[in-house]
UniProtKB/TrEMBL annotation:
It comes from the Archaea. Pfam families: Caroten_synth (PF04240). This is Carotene biosynthesis protein. NCBIfam families: crt_membr_arch (TIGR03460), CruF_Halo (NF041333). The chain crosses the membrane at residues 28-50, 56-77, 84-107, 127-148, 203-221, 256-273.
Length: 291
């Protein structure tokens, strides 16, 4: 027992270092194994190949999402100041509010309903919504910081680029989610323009949500500090690797080829950042404070 207590982190910094090591030593499992298995299980659920309670199991969906998000969450933890916490809290409140507005009024995404149980809900909105939404925006933000280089210092260039990148992520996400039956749009006009079952109004709504989300996160987190953390934390964009594998694979299964190509472009962007390399298979070592 005494030995166990000695191995436990005693400060926030030690806890952060322990989490860094945990993610770093399990990158392949988190960022490749989990999304590959997730894609197989979700497709099998949609094709009715899995029996209850495995088919679209809400607990497994939420657990898998949290695990795949863990590199981003752990990477950001040392940067969470009071200002950053306020920004994330405000964005969480916005996410719940706009989702409730969407399912009750059809604005701004268009009328839709959830076809799959995504876990406990409050007023019809899944409580896990921030876990699904906020990391998408932050992944886009981090990717753009790396790819833009010095141009990221220009406030307008940074914001516009990230907003367009978030929109591109939804070009991948929504068609795959609709194909799985996660949600479905209805009350569509007979001549409504659809993109793999997704009305164009959805993307107009995402421009609004992406703009608000990016502005909040840009206010809450210092871009120079983020870049410094990125330079020393190679796994921070691994959640985006999971996104490419999971949703690229799902869209490929259903023949949504434009979203597959866009997912591939994100993969190319990741390769240009040199974020996903031989460190995948690192042999675990002791925690830094135990060396």
């Amino acid at each position: 027992m005494a030995d166990l207590r000695a191995r436990l982190p005693r400060t926030r910094r030690e806890a952060e270092l322990a989490l860094d090591e945990l993610v770093r030593d399990n990158r392949f499992t988190i960022s490749v194994f989990f999304p590959l298995n997730g894609a197989v299980l979700l497709v099998a659920s949609a094709m009715t190949w899995l029996p209850e309670p495995l088919a679209f199991n809400a607990f497994l969906i939420l657990l898998g999402t949290i695990v795949m998000r863990s590199p981003l969450i752990v990477g950001l933890l040392p940067l969470v100041t009071r200002r950053a916490a306020i920004a994330v809290a405000a964005l969480t409140g916005y996410a719940y509010a706009i989702e409730y507005t969407g399912i009750t009024t059809g604005w701004p995404y268009g009328w839709f309903y959830y076809g799959v149980d995504l876990g406990p809900t409050v007023a019809g909105v899944p409580i896990g919504l921030p876990v699904f939404f906020i990391p998408l925006v932050m992944n886009a933000y981090l990717l753009c910081l790396l790819l833009l280089g010095d141009r990221a210092r220009n406030h307008a260039v940074r914001l516009v680029t990230v907003i367009l990148t978030v929109l591109a992520m939804d070009v991948v996400l929504d068609p795959g989610a609709v194909a799985l039956g996660f949600w479905e749009y209805y009350r569509l006009d007979a001549d409504a323009l659809l993109f793999y079952g997704v009305p164009l109004s959805n993307y107009a709504g995402w421009v609004i949500s992406a703009t608000i989300a990016v502005v909040l996160l840009d206010w809450g987190f210092d871009s120079d500090t983020l870049l410094d953390r990125l330079a020393h934390t190679e796994f921070m964009l691994d959640d985006l690797v999971s996104f490419v594998i999971l949703w690229g694979g799902i869209n490929a299964w259903f023949g949504n080829w434009v979203p597959v190509v866009v997912a591939g472009l994100f993969g190319v962007g990741l390769l240009r950042t040199d974020r996903f390399d031989s460190q995948l298979l690192r042999i675990p070592r002791r925690f830094p404070w135990q060396s």
